[in-house]
Each structure stands twice: as C-alpha cells, then as structure tokens.
Fold each of these.
Amino acid sequence: MKKMLPWLITILLTLIVLAAFLLVNQMNKPAPGTEVNAAVNSVAEPEKLSVDEIVKVTSTIDDIKTNLSEPDYVVVIDFAFQMDNEASKEAFDKIKDYKIKPIIIKTLADTKPEELTGALGKDNLSSKLLNLINKSLPEGKLIQIDITDFIMTTI
C-alpha cells in the first residue's frame, strides 16, 4: 500500500488540475446572446452631433403607461428616439402614435419586472425596441433610444 500512495496522490492532483483548467475555460466563454448584444451596440453607436443637430433628429414619446407581464406591476415610461436624419424624424413623427407606440406597449407587456431593473435592463429594453422599430420604419433608420423617465410600481 505504501508503494501505491505516491501514484494515487499524483493521479488525484492531476485530476484536480484538469478540473480547474476546464472550469476556468468554461467561465471565460461569453454568455449566449452577448455576441448579438455586442453587434447591436456596435451598430447602434451614434455619430457625434452638435446640440442643434441632435434636437433636429430627435423625437419623443411621453407618458406610456402599461402593465408588465406580471399584471401587478405598472410602468410609466418616456422615450427619446434619435433618427439618422431630419427626413426620417418627420416620417417617424407621423407614425409614432399608431405604429411605434403599440410596439413599445407589446414589448413591455412581454417584459418581466426583473428584466427592467438596473441600467443593463433598460439597455436591453432599448436594444430590443431599436431592432423592432427599425423593422417597421418606412424610411430612414433609428440609431438610438434613450429612456428619459421611468417609474415602475406595483398596483
């Protein structure tokens, strides 16, 4: 038995080192879906504009009040939408009440309260809305969505 003890210790240490190596490699892998979020964020980076240019291409939707996926939670939220040019903003303003607002309400209706907590939750909501709204725009491109006011409460 005394002759086998060094072999057993060596095998055991080798297994521990191997397990630690596999765990470190597994933890360093990006989470599923982060590649998509990174791609959305890199595409959605707005170029630097002056204050007057930002005002010319930005539209707002205020006071959206709706329930979340859990009916006990209500959210009141305001958005600022930055378009790629003035013509896009004019087209956006024409359809925002009957085309854009329903997209926002449906998205919020499928959202859990935990998904809206913190800056990351609000960024994820903005990214999701950016993709959905860009698909429905007749012309131009939405390049940034900012949440300008946010209240979430229980009923």
Note: The first helix runs from residue 5 to 28.
Amino acid sequence: MARWHRLITATPADVWAVLGDGSLYARWVVGTQDTWERDEAWPALGSELGYTVKLGPWTMKGRTISRLCEPEKRLELEAVNPLGSARIGLRTLRWGDDCLVLVDEHPLRGPATPLHNTALDALVRWRNRHMLARLDRAVKERAEQAGQTEGSAHTAGAGWAGTSAGTSHGHP
C-alpha cells in the first residue's frame, strides 16, 4: 500500500469541509483536471463524483464513489476508470490543535491490479505527498476566504481573527 501523512494546521472539521465539498475535489486530487457532482449527497455513502484526468493530449473520464464516510474521521473512496479502480483511504485525526491526515491507496480491480508492486507504490506515495500538500493549501485558502467573508460583516479587524473556517462552500 502507498501510505503517506501530513500534519495540517487546521482542525479535522476544517479539513473535512474541503474533503466533503465535491466542487473542491480537483483542487487537491493530483491529476484531476475537472470534477462534477453526480448527485448532491457527496460524500455520503454511495454518492459519486465524476472526474476528468488530462495528460497532454490524452483525456480519461472516471468516477469516484464514496464507500465509507465517517464525517471528520474517515473517508474511503473508490476511483473507477477504464484502467480499473483504486481504493483511496483518508483518515483525519486531531493532533493537538492541528489535524493529522493519513492516506493510503492501492489498485483494487481491473488490469492495473496485477501490476501492483513496490515501484508503483513509490509513484503513488509521491502523488499522495503532493495531494496532501494541495489539500493543505485548499484548507488554508478556504479558511482565508471564510475569514474574509466573516470579516466583511464586522468592523475591520474586530471579532473574526483566529476563527476557523465556517460552513461556506465557496468555489475557487
């Protein structure tokens, strides 16, 4: 399994606000060009997101299915495309005032499954390292946007500094 982790300076609720917003999926999932919600229940069990991966002139469409959803704790996804499917497990753990995010990923079904080896794991770990860095940035950007939105309703500098991201689902 390709495992990676990252400590994010935010609460599990702040991280989950990004994980649970289907419109932000392409912001943090490396290789994803575009996404769209296939239903309005994301990330509830069984809900789906469509996605497009683009590499040069090559484009592939797929879907990501939520297989297990424990808000603010655990999200298990299956990414399905013409090459097969992969399991992506995400866990969020409170770590003091911060959030430790753990990810592990491996081929699940299809032609890529027999090709699973340590070299592939190294490549997926590299991707997951970048994916968690992008998740970290998306969480921070969302918190900044929420702070600016909250701050605009207050007098300058009063009452909103240091608050965590609310529940707004702003689009980048």
Note: The chain has three helices and seven strands.
Amino acid sequence: MENILIYLRAEQHKTLQKRKVCVRDIGSIYCEDTKVAAQIGGLVIDNIIGKKAVIQMIDIIERITKEFPNAQIINFGAPDILVEYEIPRKNKFPEGVKVFLVCVLIFFGSAFTIMAFNNDISITGVFEHFYTQMTGTAKPEISELEIFYAIGLAVGIILFFNHIGKKKLSDDVTPIQVEMDKHNKDTYDTIIDKVKEKQNV
C-alpha cells in the first residue's frame, strides 16, 4: 500500500470540557486524503481521570500507526501536551464576580504602588523645586506639572498595555504580552513535568 503522509501540529496546552480526548482535540491534522484525516481526528488517545493529564506525542503516533500501518507522520508541535479537564458551567455569575474582584484588586494595588513610588522619590518636592527654578515663583497647590504628570501617566499606561477596554490600539506586541507568554510556557513545562511524575511517564 502507498504510504499516507500525515502532518500533526499539537498545542502545548489544551482545556477540554470532556474526558475523552481525541486527536483533533489537541491539535491540527493535515492529510491529502480528507477521509483519513477525519478518521485520525476521531481516534481516542486518552481518557482524563483527574483534572490534568499529559499526553506524549509518541503515544499519539503509536495510536495512529496501529490504525494506519502505512502512515508516515510528521510532527511540528509539542512533544508533550498538557490537557486539563474543565467542568462545564452553565452559570457564569461566579466567574464574573472573580473577574470583578481581580480588577478591583489590580486597580487599588496599582494606585497604591504609584502613590508609594511618588512618595519614595518625593515627587511633590521635585515639582516644587522644578516649578520655582522655571518660573521664579512659588508653586501653587495644583499646577500644570501635576495635571500633565497625571495625563502622561494615564497615556503611558494605555500605550504600554496597548488597550483601551477591549479595543487594541495596534497589532504590536507589548512587553507584558511577551512576559506573559514566557510565564505561560514555563508554567506549562513545570506542570507537565509534575504530572508526568505522577503518571510515571
């Protein structure tokens, strides 16, 4: 029989709301024969018992070759896939409350950090000294310096996070996105190692 060329691209992390994991649930499949691709996508490769499971690409290849002995598989994805089982929830109210509380915590935490930083460097004294040097008069309680400093701080935060609400200002990747991506990869790698130890993989 003619060899079947199959391309797989598995993601490092997947969250599913079902315990039976099929090949199509953890990544993309390409094959010139669409029927074969559909059959491969429907192959069950694992059954999540707890909340997390690690599926090795070598086990997926073994499962496919059992069904299609003449298959030649090329993998472009992760060698280990972390699969998390998430209980389907109809009521999204608790999730909304969590998001609200996190937003409140971040808002007041950021405000406290900015105030502590301004107090640490004595921004009031800096403004008074700068205003007196530039104008030759004593600085009033509220001057142009405080106004433009507040506006500049807000604009700087918006530009750094590259968002106003749900709207993204540009397609550029921000430093926070880069750091979050690195953090997620390191987190998934650590969880995969820990789960593999429990599974004795």
Note: The beta strands are 4-10, 13-16, 20-22, 27-30, 44-47, 52-56, 71-75, 80-85, 163-164, 167-168.
Amino acid sequence: MEPRVTVTPATVKQKAVVTVKVVGAPKTCRSVQARSDAFVGTVALTKKTKPPMYTGRAAVSGKAAPGSHQVVVGGVGCGKWTAKAKFTVPAAPKPKTVKGTVTSKVGVFVRRQPTSASAATGTARYRQTIGLICKKAGQPVAGNRTWYQVSMPKGWVTARFVKAQGAVPNCK
C-alpha cells in the first residue's frame, strides 16, 4: 500500500496551522517528516498506533504566497518513499475603503506624506467623496494630528477637513 497524505483544512490562511496525517507508511520508519514551501519549517510527525499513522501540526508562514502549495512527506530508516498532498492559501482580501467627504470649501491637497510640508500629488474638491484606506498620526493641522491615506490620487489628506463616514482603520 502506498502511503497517503492528507492536509486539513484544505484551505488555510497565512499564520494558521494545518494537520498533516500519513496513513500507510512503512512500519520500520525511525522518523517521518513533512515539508512545504509554505511551512515555517520542516515538521516531524508523531507515530500513532491505532490506526497505524503519523500525524503532526505545521504552521503556515505569514509570507506564504496565495495559491496551491504541495506538502512532501518522507521517512527515515524505512526505504525511499515520498507521499504528496496539496493545500491552498487564499489571496488576502483587499482592505475595504471608508468613504470620506471633503468639508473645506476650498478643498484639500493630497500630499505624498502626512505633513503639509510634503509635496502635493493632487487635490480633492469641497463635498467630494474620497476613499479612505487607513489613518495615522502626522503633522497637526488646526489641532488635529490625524491623516488619512487615500488612493486616488495616491497620498495623504488631513482629517481636519475630511469627514469619515465610518471607522477608518489604523495604518500598519
């Protein structure tokens, strides 16, 4: 009987843990290991007697690329054999943007950095709705240190003159 490998769950996010199970490995194996380009490292599988199998848990790297990944399992001291299985890392969802409305009657500059000393990359008009990606502290503008990152045009606007229509997440 050829050894069979299963990986559960079959779809897993980055930084999650999967269970690797091998059934049908030769009984003479001194050790059985599983590896994948998505794992943090090689995983030593523990032998279970009922039913005869090897099992272990593997951490998926936070840098694992989205898509299909192969797990290769092999034994030491029990002849040359390998068994393979696959699992999938889904693409990270795109962050949702929160809408914001420009409240300054003269509009606002979109800047390269969260400071009024930074070069302008564009403007947003009075009452224009803009997409707010995230927020962070920057140079204070009229007592307000919050700046929003925007995508069109790409850059930063001061929160002093933009009213967010929901909770804007902090920038990472």
Note: The first strand starts at residue 4 and ends at 8.
